[in-house]
Structures are given as C-alpha cells and as structure tokens.
Amino acid sequence: MIQRIALLFVITGVGHGFSIIALKFIAQRGQATQVAGIAEIESITQLMLGLIGFGMQTDAIRNISQTEKWEEKLGDAQTARSTLSIFLLMIGIFSFYKGEYLYFMMAPILASSIDYALYARGYSVIGALVALVRVVVPLLLGIISTYNWPEYILHAYVIGIVLAYLSTNTFMSLFLRVQVFYLPSFNSLQLYLKTIPLGIINLCFYFFGLGFLLFTQLFYQAEELVVSFLALKFYLVYKGAIRVIHQAFVNQMVDEKICLGIDQICIMIGLAFFGSVVVFPNTFVSALFGNQFLNNQNFFLFLGASALTFSIFSSATTRVLLERKDIPFMKIAIGSVGISAVLLLILFQFSKKVEMITLSLLAGELFFSCSLAISFFNKTDVWNRISFLMKCALGLCLPILAKIVFGESLVAYLASFSMMGLILLLFFHKKFALPVSKTL
Hints:
mainly alpha; 19 helices; globular
C-alpha cells in the first residue's frame, strides 16, 4: 500500500506543489482582482465538471470498475456528458451581460474527459499524470503572462485549461482505445435523472471546496477573497491527495480493513496539516501563501482543523457510494452544506473577518464526519480511528520540542515534521501492508 501511494504522491505532489508556488507568485506580482479572476475561473470550471459529471459519473465509475464490458458503460456516460455540455455551452450566449459566462464555452471540451474511467479501470498512476498536466499547463501560462503580458493573465489561464484538456483527452482515448468525442443524444440524459442523489452528493462535495468561494463572494470584496482562494485551493489540494489514495484502491474499498488502512494514512496527513498551523503558524503561512497573510492565522487554523476532521472517516465517502447507500449519504451531505451556509450568514452579522469563512466550513465538516461515524460505522470501527489519531497526536511532541529549542524557522519546521512522519511510518507500517492491484 505504501509503495503505491508513495508513487501517486510523488506525481500529485509535484503538481500541487507547483500549484501552490505558482499561485503564491501570481498573488505577489499580480493584482488582487486578477487572483480573484483566476479563483472565479477555477470555481466555474469545477462547477461545470460537477454538473457534467453529476451523479451519473459516480454511477459510471461503479459500473466501469465492476464489469468486463466497460466500453459500453463508458460510451453511455460520455454520450450523456456530451449532451449536457451543449446546454452549458448555451450559457456562454449571456457573456454580453457578464463576461464570466464565456467560460461555459469550454463545457464540451471538459465533457470529453474520461479521466474517471482510468481510475475505475485501475490506472491510477496514468490518471495522476493526466491531472498533473492539467494543473501545470494553465498556471505555467499564467506565470509566463505575468512576466510578459500581465494584463492578459486570465486569458492565458483559460487558454492553458483548453490546451491541457484537449491534449490529455486525446491521450486518454488512445490509451484506453476508445473514441475521443461522442455524439449527443437527448435520451441519454435519463442517466442523470436516475442518479439525482449521487449528483446532489457531488455538488455538495464541490461546495466544500472552491464552490464555497462562489458563495462567499456575496459577502466579501475581491481583496478579502484572495486569501480565501489560496487557502481553499490548498484545501482542495489536501482533499485531492486523499482522493488519490481512494482512487488507488477504489475496487477494494468495500473491505473494512482496506478502509481502515486508508483512513489511518489520511489521519496522518490531516494531523500534519493541523499540526503545522498550530505549532509553526508563521512559517506555514509565510512559506506557502506569503507574509501578507500572517495576520490571518486563525483562518488557517480553522482550515487545518477542518482537514483533520474530514480525514478521520474519509473512506466512507467512497465506500458508501460503492455500497449504493446513496439516499442516506445525500441527506448527510445536504445537512453539512446547510450548516456551513447558514452559520456563515449568521457569523457575518457579528463579524466581517474572513476567518468566519473557515469557521463555518469547520462546522460543516464536523457535522459531516460525525454523521458518517454514526450512520456507517460501528463502535469498534470508530474507536479504531479515534485511538489511532490519539497515538499519532503524540508525535506532535517532536515539532513542539523543535520549536522550543530552535525557534520557529523553516528548517525546524521541515526537519521536525519529516522526522515525525518517518517515525509514525516506521511504527505503524505493518498496518498498511495491504494488497493492491498490479495496474498502473
């Protein structure tokens, strides 16, 4: 298990690391409105992907991973995606009213992506490489534009998205030996109607990421949203790392032993995130986001707490779907979104600080995790995860000691948390010695 995950983390780590560095660079050299513009592009792109996939894509992953005639299931799914993208494409007509609607013209290109089929068939490493290209290319063009054509950063970013998807879509189709584009058929939209609960679940997942940013735009100005975008982008990176782990074992996650091992790895990652903002807040914020956000430490503290909370029972987000418990899961997801949204509305009346964004996010994640624990885990399963968290938390003594002795510095931060991770892996490595498939 560790070897497989390590390879995936190397690939995704490069992409996510580049993403953090690139966004930090653009935020320092560009204008706040440009960073907010990139945030809006990202949010709308993720919204389109969420609508195009809806619940139908999750159902397709289940079908593709569990049948030999997967090409037919893929064809049905892609036909439906292609059809829905036409309706999203038509939203671009209203770009004369608001320029951002023009981004919906990318819908057919996004709909042609079959990355979900790679993960369903067990080619998680290939899928990670595709994701790497899609992260790097738009940001790379954005950086180049920052140097040469600073007024066209947003244009360069959109062009990068289009180029990245066109190239990777073609590659995946050749790799899986399926066609690139599928003709639309209005009858195929019935697949969306059959998977409405799954679609609502996926949209709720979107909300607990960049989707939350679209909601907060109703309350905060562009300058205040810069830190929100960078932080929520990092949170999306964190959840992406957990998703990579899930995707590597998606065919095996009906087994509680596999799920427990996955949750334990996710707990270690979440604890490292939370521990970073607790023990080395100045170093963490300045290194990843910039010195201009050092006054927003509580913002990142709540974000780290949200990450750790989500990690404890994260395997349920995949296992429950594989077990087709869609309706109860949908109710939990809706409740979590409702709590976050309503709490932000209430908190904003008392304080206009951006910390209220991640505080409300934390409340939603707490409700989500507690509801998963109560609904889908027995007492033994819950205790196995909580006790593991308590044992791992003792490892934070090492970073705390390093800070006391050496002070808050980047070297002390990296060295202490690296040692902590190594010790925990050495101590618990036998828990992760689980079988994996041979495919890439």
